[in-house]
Design a protein that fits this description.
mainly alpha; 141 residues
Amino acid sequence: MITIDASIWFEIIGMLVLMVVLNSLLYKPMRQMLQARESKMASIKEEAERFERNAERLLENFNSRLADARSKGISKREELKAQAREEERSLMDESAKEAAEKKQQLLGDLSSQIEAARNELKAQAEAFAVEIAQKLLGRAV
């Protein structure tokens, strides 16, 4: 059984003194340390969120600049292709003109050679005709 006597008051006073001492020596520093840790964690979390937002903004900026560079590259490539096609057309036209001129020149040379050959054959044909006539007739014509 529990008996209530004067020692209970010493126990209660001892317990209160122990609570005050423990509070001042252990609980308050622990709570301050936990609050400091919590505030430090909150500031680290805010800083991490700020860095994350900054990184997202930089990534968006990078992606937009990359998209601009790609579109400029594509337009430049198309422009260069168009210039190349135009240059190809002009070279083809120039080559066709040169080929036509060369063809006309060769046709002119060929027709003059044919005409010269005809004239030569005409002269030879008359000489052959006279020679054949002399052989057939057996006398000079």
